[in-house]
Protein backbone atom coordinates (compact mmCIF):
# COMPACT_ATOMS: atom_id res chain seq x y z
CA UNK A 1 0.00 0.00 0.00
CA UNK A 2 1.43 3.43 -0.89
CA UNK A 3 2.05 5.99 1.88
CA UNK A 4 -1.02 7.96 2.87
CA UNK A 5 -1.26 11.28 1.05
CA UNK A 6 -4.33 12.63 2.79
CA UNK A 7 -3.49 13.71 6.32
CA UNK A 8 -1.06 16.62 5.86
CA UNK A 9 -2.93 18.13 2.87
CA UNK A 10 -6.25 17.88 4.74
CA UNK A 11 -4.76 19.56 7.80
CA UNK A 12 -3.16 22.28 5.67
CA UNK A 13 -6.52 23.03 4.04
CA UNK A 14 -8.22 23.30 7.44
CA UNK A 15 -5.47 25.51 8.87
CA UNK A 16 -5.42 27.84 5.87
CA UNK A 17 -9.16 28.38 6.24
CA UNK A 18 -9.22 28.97 10.00
CA UNK A 19 -10.72 32.33 10.93
CA UNK A 20 -10.97 33.54 14.51
CA UNK A 21 -14.15 35.44 13.66
CA UNK A 22 -15.90 32.16 12.81
CA UNK A 23 -15.06 30.38 16.08
CA UNK A 24 -18.02 30.09 18.45
CA UNK A 25 -17.93 31.78 21.85
CA UNK A 26 -17.84 28.52 23.84
CA UNK A 27 -14.77 27.27 21.99
CA UNK A 28 -13.06 30.64 22.34
CA UNK A 29 -13.69 30.66 26.10
CA UNK A 30 -12.42 27.09 26.44
CA UNK A 31 -9.26 27.98 24.52
CA UNK A 32 -8.71 31.06 26.72
CA UNK A 33 -8.81 28.89 29.84
CA UNK A 34 -6.23 26.52 28.35
CA UNK A 35 -4.08 29.50 27.41
CA UNK A 36 -4.26 30.74 31.02
CA UNK A 37 -3.28 27.35 32.39
CA UNK A 38 -0.37 27.03 29.96
CA UNK A 39 0.93 30.54 30.65
CA UNK A 40 0.97 29.92 34.38
CA UNK A 41 2.51 26.45 34.08
CA UNK A 42 5.26 27.94 31.92
CA UNK A 43 6.06 30.53 34.58
CA UNK A 44 6.04 27.78 37.20
CA UNK A 45 8.36 25.50 35.25
CA UNK A 46 10.75 28.38 34.61
CA UNK A 47 11.15 28.75 38.38
CA UNK A 48 12.34 25.15 38.90
CA UNK A 49 15.79 23.64 38.94
CA UNK A 50 14.66 21.02 36.42
CA UNK A 51 14.63 23.52 33.54
CA UNK A 52 18.25 24.60 34.10
CA UNK A 53 20.13 21.90 32.11
CA UNK A 54 17.85 22.20 29.06
CA UNK A 55 17.79 25.99 29.16
CA UNK A 56 21.59 26.17 29.50
CA UNK A 57 22.14 23.73 26.64
CA UNK A 58 19.80 25.65 24.34
CA UNK A 59 21.38 29.00 25.20
CA UNK A 60 24.87 27.57 24.68
CA UNK A 61 23.88 26.34 21.21
CA UNK A 62 22.11 29.55 20.18
CA UNK A 63 24.42 32.26 21.51
CA UNK A 64 28.12 33.01 21.82
CA UNK A 65 27.40 35.25 24.75
CA UNK A 66 24.75 35.49 27.41
CA UNK A 67 21.80 37.17 25.68
CA UNK A 68 19.95 40.16 27.08
CA UNK A 69 16.75 38.26 26.29
CA UNK A 70 15.98 34.88 24.78
CA UNK A 71 13.84 36.62 22.17
CA UNK A 72 17.09 37.42 20.36
CA UNK A 73 16.78 33.80 19.17
CA UNK A 74 13.06 32.95 18.64
CA UNK A 75 13.73 29.23 18.22
CA UNK A 76 15.58 29.08 21.51
CA UNK A 77 12.90 31.15 23.25
CA UNK A 78 10.11 28.87 22.00
CA UNK A 79 12.00 25.74 22.99
CA UNK A 80 12.75 26.96 26.52
CA UNK A 81 9.17 28.07 27.09
CA UNK A 82 7.74 24.80 25.81
CA UNK A 83 9.92 22.69 28.05
CA UNK A 84 9.25 24.96 31.05
CA UNK A 85 5.55 24.28 30.68
CA UNK A 86 5.77 20.56 29.92
CA UNK A 87 8.09 19.58 32.75
CA UNK A 88 5.60 20.72 35.40
CA UNK A 89 3.33 17.68 34.80
CA UNK A 90 0.51 20.11 35.61
CA UNK A 91 -0.18 21.04 31.99
CA UNK A 92 -3.27 19.86 30.13
CA UNK A 93 -3.81 16.63 28.19
CA UNK A 94 -6.04 15.09 25.53
CA UNK A 95 -6.52 11.49 26.61
CA UNK A 96 -7.66 10.09 23.25
CA UNK A 97 -4.30 10.93 21.69
CA UNK A 98 -2.16 11.07 24.86
CA UNK A 99 -0.88 14.48 23.78
CA UNK A 100 -0.19 17.42 26.13
CA UNK A 101 -0.91 20.15 23.57
CA UNK A 102 -0.92 23.52 25.30
CA UNK A 103 2.68 23.17 26.45
CA UNK A 104 3.67 23.34 22.77
CA UNK A 105 0.88 25.35 21.21
CA UNK A 106 0.75 28.41 23.44
CA UNK A 107 4.48 29.29 23.76
CA UNK A 108 5.16 28.69 20.07
CA UNK A 109 2.22 30.83 18.98
CA UNK A 110 3.23 33.71 21.25
CA UNK A 111 6.82 33.76 19.99
CA UNK A 112 5.82 33.30 16.34
CA UNK A 113 3.25 36.07 16.71
CA UNK A 114 5.77 38.51 18.11
CA UNK A 115 8.25 37.64 15.36
CA UNK A 116 5.64 38.21 12.63
CA UNK A 117 4.09 41.23 14.38
CA UNK A 118 0.80 39.39 13.92
CA UNK A 119 -2.61 40.49 15.12
CA UNK A 120 -4.33 39.01 18.14
CA UNK A 121 -6.77 37.21 15.85
CA UNK A 122 -3.99 35.68 13.74
CA UNK A 123 -2.14 34.40 16.80
CA UNK A 124 -5.35 32.86 18.11
CA UNK A 125 -5.83 31.13 14.76
CA UNK A 126 -2.30 29.76 15.09
CA UNK A 127 -3.16 28.40 18.52
CA UNK A 128 -6.24 26.60 17.20
CA UNK A 129 -4.17 25.24 14.31
CA UNK A 130 -1.64 23.84 16.76
CA UNK A 131 -4.25 21.95 18.74
CA UNK A 132 -5.73 20.54 15.56
CA UNK A 133 -2.41 19.31 14.18
CA UNK A 134 -1.14 17.68 17.36
CA UNK A 135 -4.37 15.92 18.26
CA UNK A 136 -5.30 14.81 14.74
CA UNK A 137 -1.86 13.37 14.01
CA UNK A 138 -1.59 11.63 17.39
CA UNK A 139 -5.08 10.17 17.05
CA UNK A 140 -4.13 8.85 13.61
CA UNK A 141 -0.97 7.33 15.12
CA UNK A 142 -2.93 5.73 17.98
CA UNK A 143 -0.90 7.69 20.51
CA UNK A 144 -2.78 6.34 23.53
CA UNK A 145 -1.55 2.83 22.66
CA UNK A 146 1.85 3.61 21.22
CA UNK A 147 3.01 5.60 24.23
CA UNK A 148 3.50 2.27 26.02
CA UNK A 149 5.66 1.08 23.12
CA UNK A 150 8.21 3.85 23.57
CA UNK A 151 6.59 6.54 21.37
CA UNK A 152 6.01 9.90 23.07
CA UNK A 153 3.02 11.47 21.23
CA UNK A 154 3.81 15.05 22.26
CA UNK A 155 7.34 14.72 20.89
CA UNK A 156 6.04 12.87 17.83
CA UNK A 157 3.69 15.70 16.84
CA UNK A 158 5.16 18.79 18.54
CA UNK A 159 7.61 19.78 15.81
CA UNK A 160 5.00 19.40 13.08
CA UNK A 161 2.60 21.51 15.11
CA UNK A 162 5.26 24.18 15.65
CA UNK A 163 5.72 24.33 11.88
CA UNK A 164 1.98 24.64 11.27
CA UNK A 165 1.50 27.30 13.95
CA UNK A 166 4.35 29.41 12.66
CA UNK A 167 3.29 29.00 9.03
CA UNK A 168 -0.29 30.05 9.83
CA UNK A 169 0.82 33.08 11.82
CA UNK A 170 3.29 34.08 9.06
CA UNK A 171 0.38 34.11 6.62
CA UNK A 172 1.73 31.35 4.38
CA UNK A 173 -0.43 29.73 1.72
CA UNK A 174 -2.13 26.36 2.08
CA UNK A 175 0.60 24.77 -0.03
CA UNK A 176 3.34 26.34 2.09
CA UNK A 177 1.65 25.22 5.31
CA UNK A 178 1.60 21.68 3.96
CA UNK A 179 5.25 21.99 2.95
CA UNK A 180 6.22 23.28 6.41
CA UNK A 181 4.55 20.30 8.09
CA UNK A 182 6.11 17.89 5.61
CA UNK A 183 9.59 19.27 6.26
CA UNK A 184 9.13 19.13 10.04
CA UNK A 185 7.73 15.61 9.83
CA UNK A 186 10.98 14.32 8.33
CA UNK A 187 12.43 14.00 11.84
CA UNK A 188 9.24 13.09 13.74
CA UNK A 189 10.11 9.70 15.23
CA UNK A 190 8.62 10.23 18.68
CA UNK A 191 11.40 8.15 20.24
CA UNK A 192 13.50 9.67 23.03
CA UNK A 193 15.13 6.50 24.35
CA UNK A 194 15.12 5.43 27.97
CA UNK A 195 17.71 7.04 30.24
CA UNK A 196 17.34 6.48 33.97
CA UNK A 197 20.12 8.84 35.08
CA UNK A 198 19.04 12.42 35.80
CA UNK A 199 18.90 14.76 33.99
CA UNK A 200 17.50 12.77 31.07
CA UNK A 201 17.38 14.18 27.51
CA UNK A 202 13.56 14.12 27.54
CA UNK A 203 13.00 17.87 27.68
CA UNK A 204 15.96 18.67 25.44
CA UNK A 205 14.78 16.47 22.55
CA UNK A 206 11.31 18.03 22.74
CA UNK A 207 12.97 21.43 22.60
CA UNK A 208 14.94 20.50 19.48
CA UNK A 209 11.74 19.34 17.77
CA UNK A 210 10.17 22.74 18.45
CA UNK A 211 13.17 24.58 17.01
CA UNK A 212 13.09 22.31 13.94
CA UNK A 213 9.42 23.11 13.43
CA UNK A 214 10.07 26.85 13.38
CA UNK A 215 12.92 26.30 10.92
CA UNK A 216 10.61 24.20 8.74
CA UNK A 217 8.13 27.08 8.50
CA UNK A 218 10.97 29.43 7.52
CA UNK A 219 12.07 26.92 4.88
CA UNK A 220 8.57 26.73 3.41
CA UNK A 221 8.39 30.52 3.35
CA UNK A 222 11.65 30.46 1.37
CA UNK A 223 10.15 28.16 -1.25
CA UNK A 224 11.47 24.81 -0.03
CA UNK A 225 9.00 21.96 -0.49
CA UNK A 226 8.05 19.10 1.80
CA UNK A 227 6.83 15.57 1.12
CA UNK A 228 3.09 15.48 1.75
CA UNK A 229 3.19 11.67 2.09
CA UNK A 230 6.18 11.51 4.44
CA UNK A 231 4.36 10.34 7.57
CA UNK A 232 4.20 6.66 6.63
CA UNK A 233 7.83 6.74 5.55
CA UNK A 234 9.32 8.26 8.68
CA UNK A 235 7.55 6.30 11.42
CA UNK A 236 5.83 2.94 11.67
CA UNK A 237 3.05 4.49 13.75
CA UNK A 238 1.80 6.12 10.56
CA UNK A 239 2.02 2.89 8.55
CA UNK A 240 -0.76 3.26 5.94
CA UNK A 241 -1.94 -0.28 6.68
CA UNK A 242 -2.62 0.51 10.33
CA UNK A 243 -3.20 4.27 10.20
CA UNK A 244 -6.36 5.31 12.03
CA UNK A 245 -7.51 8.16 9.83
CA UNK A 246 -9.96 10.52 11.51
CA UNK A 247 -13.40 10.65 9.97
CA UNK A 248 -12.65 14.23 9.01
CA UNK A 249 -9.31 16.00 9.21
CA UNK A 250 -9.81 18.78 6.68
CA UNK A 251 -12.15 21.79 6.47
CA UNK A 252 -15.26 21.33 8.57
CA UNK A 253 -13.63 19.03 11.13
CA UNK A 254 -14.59 19.88 14.73
CA UNK A 255 -12.05 21.94 16.66
CA UNK A 256 -10.40 19.50 19.03
CA UNK A 257 -9.43 22.03 21.70
CA UNK A 258 -12.87 21.30 23.16
CA UNK A 259 -11.77 17.76 24.02
CA UNK A 260 -8.63 18.72 25.96
CA UNK A 261 -8.73 18.17 29.72
CA UNK A 262 -6.95 19.83 32.65
CA UNK A 263 -4.95 18.37 35.51
CA UNK A 264 -5.96 19.53 39.00
CA UNK A 265 -2.39 19.07 40.31
CA UNK A 266 1.02 17.67 39.41
CA UNK A 267 0.42 14.09 38.26
CA UNK A 268 0.62 11.70 35.39
CA UNK A 269 -2.85 11.51 33.87
CA UNK A 270 -2.59 7.73 34.14
CA UNK A 271 -2.51 8.00 37.92
CA UNK A 272 -5.08 10.75 38.32
CA UNK A 273 -8.34 8.77 38.44
CA UNK A 274 -7.07 6.31 41.03
CA UNK A 275 -5.55 9.11 43.11
CA UNK A 276 -8.84 11.00 43.06
CA UNK A 277 -10.78 7.83 43.92
CA UNK A 278 -8.55 7.17 46.94
CA UNK A 279 -8.65 10.76 48.21
CA UNK A 280 -12.45 10.86 47.93
CA UNK A 281 -12.84 7.50 49.68
CA UNK A 282 -10.75 8.78 52.58
CA UNK A 283 -12.45 12.17 52.72
CA UNK A 284 -16.07 11.07 52.27
CA UNK A 285 -15.78 8.31 54.86
CA UNK A 286 -13.67 10.39 57.28
CA UNK A 287 -10.98 7.70 57.40
CA UNK A 288 -8.02 8.34 59.66
CA UNK A 289 -4.96 7.60 57.46
CA UNK A 290 -3.22 5.98 60.43
CA UNK A 291 -6.03 3.41 60.63
CA UNK A 292 -5.67 2.27 57.02
CA UNK A 293 -4.76 -1.40 56.68
CA UNK A 294 -4.82 -1.83 52.92
CA UNK A 295 -5.17 0.32 49.78
CA UNK A 296 -6.13 -1.72 46.71
CA UNK A 297 -5.84 0.31 43.52
CA UNK A 298 -7.16 -0.97 40.19
CA UNK A 299 -6.48 0.64 36.81
CA UNK A 300 -6.53 -0.30 33.12
CA UNK A 301 -4.02 -2.97 32.15
CA UNK A 302 -2.58 -0.61 29.53
CA UNK A 303 -0.85 1.59 32.09
CA UNK A 304 -0.65 -0.41 35.29
CA UNK A 305 3.05 -1.18 34.82
CA UNK A 306 3.78 2.47 34.09
CA UNK A 307 2.41 3.72 37.41
CA UNK A 308 3.28 0.73 39.61
CA UNK A 309 6.93 1.53 40.34
CA UNK A 310 9.11 3.61 42.63
CA UNK A 311 7.22 2.66 45.79
CA UNK A 312 9.85 4.40 47.94
CA UNK A 313 10.72 7.55 45.94
CA UNK A 314 14.14 9.14 46.22
CA UNK A 315 13.97 11.71 43.41
CA UNK A 316 11.57 14.34 42.15
CA UNK A 317 10.66 12.19 39.15
CA UNK A 318 10.02 9.12 41.31
CA UNK A 319 7.85 11.14 43.69
CA UNK A 320 5.33 11.63 40.88
CA UNK A 321 4.55 7.91 40.97
CA UNK A 322 1.12 6.92 42.25
CA UNK A 323 2.35 5.43 45.54
CA UNK A 324 3.73 8.71 46.83
CA UNK A 325 0.85 10.67 45.28
CA UNK A 326 -1.66 8.63 47.28
CA UNK A 327 0.27 9.12 50.50
CA UNK A 328 0.61 12.89 50.26
CA UNK A 329 -2.94 13.13 48.92
CA UNK A 330 -4.15 11.70 52.21
CA UNK A 331 -1.74 13.49 54.54
CA UNK A 332 -0.54 16.67 52.79
CA UNK A 333 -2.94 17.32 49.85
CA UNK A 334 -1.57 20.76 48.97
CA UNK A 335 1.78 19.12 48.18
CA UNK A 336 0.19 17.47 45.15
CA UNK A 337 0.65 20.90 43.56
CA UNK A 338 4.33 21.07 44.51
CA UNK A 339 6.12 20.70 41.16
CA UNK A 340 9.60 21.27 42.57
CA UNK A 341 9.43 18.56 45.28
CA UNK A 342 12.51 19.83 47.09
CA UNK A 343 11.32 17.94 50.15
CA UNK A 344 10.27 14.31 49.69
CA UNK A 345 8.77 12.75 52.80
CA UNK A 346 10.08 9.27 52.05
CA UNK A 347 11.32 8.81 55.65
CA UNK A 348 8.12 10.06 57.32
CA UNK A 349 6.64 7.10 59.29
CA UNK A 350 3.08 8.12 58.39
CA UNK A 351 4.00 8.22 54.69
CA UNK A 352 5.85 4.90 54.90
CA UNK A 353 2.81 3.31 56.54
CA UNK A 354 0.60 4.26 53.60
CA UNK A 355 3.21 3.31 50.99
CA UNK A 356 3.38 -0.17 52.51
CA UNK A 357 -0.41 -0.54 52.32
CA UNK A 358 -0.67 0.01 48.56
CA UNK A 359 -1.30 -2.75 46.03
CA UNK A 360 -1.99 -2.07 42.35
CA UNK A 361 -3.76 -4.45 39.97
CA UNK A 362 -5.36 -4.54 36.53
CA UNK A 363 -9.09 -4.20 36.03
CA UNK A 364 -10.56 -5.83 32.92
CA UNK A 365 -13.58 -3.53 32.76
CA UNK A 366 -11.46 -0.39 33.04
CA UNK A 367 -9.10 -1.83 30.42
CA UNK A 368 -11.98 -2.15 27.95
CA UNK A 369 -12.94 1.50 28.50
CA UNK A 370 -9.42 2.71 27.61
CA UNK A 371 -8.60 5.07 25.85
CA UNK A 372 -12.06 6.68 25.88
CA UNK A 373 -11.86 6.80 29.67
CA UNK A 374 -8.73 6.55 31.80
CA UNK A 375 -10.40 5.28 34.95
CA UNK A 376 -9.20 4.13 38.34
CA UNK A 377 -10.65 2.67 41.52
CA UNK A 378 -9.62 2.45 45.17
CA UNK A 379 -10.69 0.04 47.89
CA UNK A 380 -9.54 1.32 51.28
CA UNK A 381 -9.63 -1.04 54.24
CA UNK A 382 -9.61 0.56 57.70
CA UNK A 383 -10.97 -0.64 61.03
CA UNK A 384 -12.02 -3.92 59.47
CA UNK A 385 -14.24 -2.21 56.88
CA UNK A 386 -13.57 -1.63 53.17
CA UNK A 387 -14.61 1.58 51.43
CA UNK A 388 -14.71 1.70 47.64
CA UNK A 389 -14.63 4.53 45.14
CA UNK A 390 -14.26 4.55 41.36
CA UNK A 391 -13.53 7.51 39.10
CA UNK A 392 -13.92 7.35 35.32
CA UNK A 393 -13.82 11.07 34.60
CA UNK A 394 -11.69 12.88 37.20
CA UNK A 395 -11.64 16.60 37.78
CA UNK A 396 -10.44 18.34 34.66
CA UNK A 397 -11.84 15.93 32.08
CA UNK A 398 -14.22 17.56 29.56
CA UNK A 399 -17.01 15.54 31.23
CA UNK A 400 -16.00 16.92 34.66
CA UNK A 401 -14.58 20.31 33.74
CA UNK A 402 -12.56 22.78 35.75
CA UNK A 403 -13.55 26.45 35.53
CA UNK A 404 -11.53 29.65 35.92
CA UNK A 405 -11.75 29.55 39.71
CA UNK A 406 -10.65 25.90 39.79
CA UNK A 407 -7.63 26.54 37.58
CA UNK A 408 -6.73 29.68 39.54
CA UNK A 409 -6.85 27.72 42.80
CA UNK A 410 -4.54 25.06 41.38
CA UNK A 411 -2.06 27.66 40.18
CA UNK A 412 -2.16 29.66 43.41
CA UNK A 413 -1.43 26.48 45.36
CA UNK A 414 1.47 25.68 43.02
CA UNK A 415 2.88 29.13 43.72
CA UNK A 416 3.20 28.38 47.44
CA UNK A 417 6.01 25.91 46.72
CA UNK A 418 8.02 28.01 44.25
CA UNK A 419 10.87 30.40 44.93
CA UNK A 420 9.30 32.81 42.47
CA UNK A 421 5.48 32.99 42.59
CA UNK A 422 3.27 32.71 39.54
CA UNK A 423 1.55 36.02 38.63
CA UNK A 424 -1.80 34.24 38.52
CA UNK A 425 -4.10 37.26 38.41
CA UNK A 426 -2.09 39.04 35.72
CA UNK A 427 -1.96 35.94 33.53
CA UNK A 428 -5.70 35.37 33.91
CA UNK A 429 -6.35 38.93 32.76
CA UNK A 430 -3.99 38.51 29.79
CA UNK A 431 -5.57 35.22 28.74
CA UNK A 432 -9.12 36.54 28.96
CA UNK A 433 -8.17 39.55 26.83
CA UNK A 434 -5.96 37.48 24.49
CA UNK A 435 -3.27 40.03 25.27
CA UNK A 436 -0.48 37.94 23.76
CA UNK A 437 2.14 40.69 23.82
CA UNK A 438 1.82 41.17 27.58
CA UNK A 439 1.67 37.41 28.13
CA UNK A 440 4.89 36.85 26.18
CA UNK A 441 6.62 39.60 28.12
CA UNK A 442 5.63 37.85 31.35
CA UNK A 443 6.88 34.47 30.12
CA UNK A 444 10.19 35.78 28.80
CA UNK A 445 10.73 37.61 32.07
CA UNK A 446 10.27 34.34 33.92
CA UNK A 447 12.91 32.45 31.90
CA UNK A 448 15.33 35.37 31.58
CA UNK A 449 15.50 35.81 35.35
Topology (SSEs and partners):
Elements: H1 7-17, H2 25-46, H3 52-62, H4 74-86, H5 102-116, H6 120-140, H7 143-146, H8 153-170, H9 174-185, H10 202-221, H11 231-234, H12 269-284, E1 292-299, H13 301-307, H14 316-319, H15 322-331, H16 349-357, E2 358-362, H17 364-369, E3 376-382, E4 385-391, H18 404-415, H19 424-433, H20 436-448
Parallel strand pairs: 1-2
Antiparallel strand pairs: 1-3, 3-4
What report would you give on this structure?
The protein has 449 residues and is α+β, with helices and mostly antiparallel strands. It folds into two domains: 7-264 and 400-448, 2-methylcitrate dehydratase PrpD (Orthogonal Bundle), CATH 1.10.4100.10; 269-391, 60s Ribosomal Protein L30, Chain: A. The protein contains 20 helices and four strands. The protein has helices at residues 7-17, 25-46, 52-62, 74-86, 102-116, 120-140, 143-146, 153-170, 174-185, 202-221, 231-234, 269-284, 301-307, 316-319, 322-331, 349-357, 364-369, 404-415, 424-433, 436-448, and strands spanning 292-299, 358-362, 376-382, 385-391. The chain has a four-stranded mixed sheet with strand order 2-1-3-4. A hairpin with a 2-residue loop joins β3 and β4 (385-391). The protein is globular, with a radius of gyration of 21 Å. The mean pLDDT is 94.
Amino acid sequence: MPPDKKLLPDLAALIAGLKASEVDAATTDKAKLHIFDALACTCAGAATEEIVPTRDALIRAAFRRKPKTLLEHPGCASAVLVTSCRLTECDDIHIGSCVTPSSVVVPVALVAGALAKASRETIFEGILAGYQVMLTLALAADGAANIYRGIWPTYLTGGIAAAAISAKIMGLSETQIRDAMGIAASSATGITGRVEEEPTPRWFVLATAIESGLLAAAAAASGIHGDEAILGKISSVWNPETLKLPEQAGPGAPLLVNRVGFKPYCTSRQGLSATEAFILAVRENKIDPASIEKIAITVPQQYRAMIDRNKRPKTKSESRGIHYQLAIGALHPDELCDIERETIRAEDPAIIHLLDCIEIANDDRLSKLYPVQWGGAAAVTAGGKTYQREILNPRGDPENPMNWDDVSTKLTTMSKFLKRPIPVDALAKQAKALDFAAALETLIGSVDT
